[in-house]
Design brief:
Helix 9 runs parallel beside helix 10 and helix 14 runs antiparallel to helix 15. This protein starts with a helix and ends in an 8-residue tail after the last helix. An eight-stranded parallel beta barrel has the order 1-2-3-4-5-6-7-8, surrounded by seven helices. Helix 10 links the parallel strand 6 and strand 7. The protein has 15 helices and eight strands. It is an alpha/beta fold. Helices cover 48% and strands 11% of the residues. The protein is elongated and about 85 Å long.
């Protein structure tokens, strides 16, 4: 019995030491200068089972494409069902004209950032161009990396050619959830002749539906329908037994997806304006707010009204100021001592007057 209590005591001591270690780790936030996110309840995670339940009940599924930690936190807080880390980051974040240049390693950086911020939604990572087309083995290896290194729950791949269908089936058989993508597939602009809507003729409309069905047979849990006419999307949605997620495909899909930056109206730069899809509804004009804030910041820094006392929170007492000045003078740093004394005097005057400015007269 004595041995048992001795072991129990050592265990408790080790746990206490471990908790102290955790508190001291740099990646565990404390309530100091910078705060951190609150831990999420794993029971609140959206899973494929939850999505299937919503689909069976006819409840629309919400999806947002995001690429970094701050946007992922917003998506999480809003209660969005799915967060897609899209290869559209190549255009929206990196400034390319197409999605083709982004590499797998770059995608994994985006995936990990989103995984840190979005704890509730189902996380889906795009397989970037050139990382899954060569063989089923390559596709499976890439999908495994997206889950293991990127922290995703599932992957998305584009297109419905025989090789893509085979790749989707191989990834599913490897135990990884797959979302398909038909209609406008940006990675295929070389053969599509640009970012062009699909399904506008009888033959191409039928192909959209047939491709979606093939992806379903391959084991995909959902299919994105991009830039197709609403009747075509309605037909595909009716024909499938899995959810369709529309983007520029009208209101007859099982859910909708938009890019975070697009729906917020964040980027007003001409480069981005030319690639912002016309089907996107802007729910805010965040870009204008950002521009205004940056101009105001520049103005206040230029006229020395920022930072004033309200944003200079770290204090040193008058007695310590005097001691500091004496030490500077002992070191022969008279100019530094004068600068410190003048700064203390200006801050003191501004605080006394309630004026936020510390600009020189």
């Amino acid at each position: 019995m004595a041995v048992f209590f001795s072991a129990l005591s050592r265990t408790k001591s080790a746990l206490r030491s471990h908790s102290v270690f955790l508190r001291c780790m740099s990646n565990v936030p404390e309530n100091t200068v910078y705060g951190g996110p609150k831990p999420q309840n794993p029971n609140q995670r959206v899973t494929l089972t939850h999505l299937k339940q919503k689909y069976r009940k006819g409840q629309p599924i919400t999806v947002v494409t995001a690429y970094d930690y701050p946007s992922a936190v917003h998506v999480d807080t809003a209660g969005i069902d799915m967060c897609l880390v899209g290869d559209s980051a190549a255009m929206v974040v990196h400034g390319h004209d197409t999605t083709l240049p982004i590499s797998l390693d770059e995608m994994l950086v985006h995936c990990r950032a989103v995984a840190r911020g979005a704890k509730r939604p189902l996380l889906v990572g795009d397989l970037s161009f050139g990382t899954y087309e060569s063989s089923t083995s390559q596709a499976v290896d890439t999908a495994v990396r997206v889950l293991k290194e990127g922290g995703m729950d599932a992957i998305k791949l584009e297109g419905g050619s025989l090789s893509r269908i085979t790749a989707a089936r191989g990834i599913v058989e490897a135990g990884i959830a797959v979302m398909g993508h038909v209609g406008l597939t940006p990675q295929a602009i070389s053969v599509l002749g640009g970012f062009r809507p699909q399904g506008k003729s009888v033959a191409t409309a039928v192909k959209v539906v047939e491709t979606a069905l093939l992806l379903q047979e391959a084991g995909c849990f959902s299919v994105v329908l991009e830039c197709v006419p609403p009747p075509v999307a309605a037909a595909a949605t009716s024909a499938l037994r899995i959810p369709t997620i529309g983007i520029g495909a009208g209101p007859f899909c099982s859910g909708q997806v938009l890019v975070y930056h697009d729906l917020l109206g964040m980027l007003q730069h001409p480069h981005h304006a030319k690639v912002t899809p016309k089907f996107c509804k802007q729910y805010a004009g965040v870009g204008d707010v950002i521009n205004k804030a940056l101009l105001e910041y520049k103005k206040e820094v230029t006229n020395c009204s920022f930072p004033g006392p309200a944003h200079s929170p770290y204090k040193i007492s008058p007695s310590d100021v005097n001691g500091f000045l004496n030490e500077l003078q002992k070191l022969g740093l008279d100019n530094a001592a004068s600068a410190a004394a003048e700064a203390a005097e200006k801050i003191g005057r501004a605080e006394s007057s309630g004026d936020g400015s510390t600009a020189s007269d």
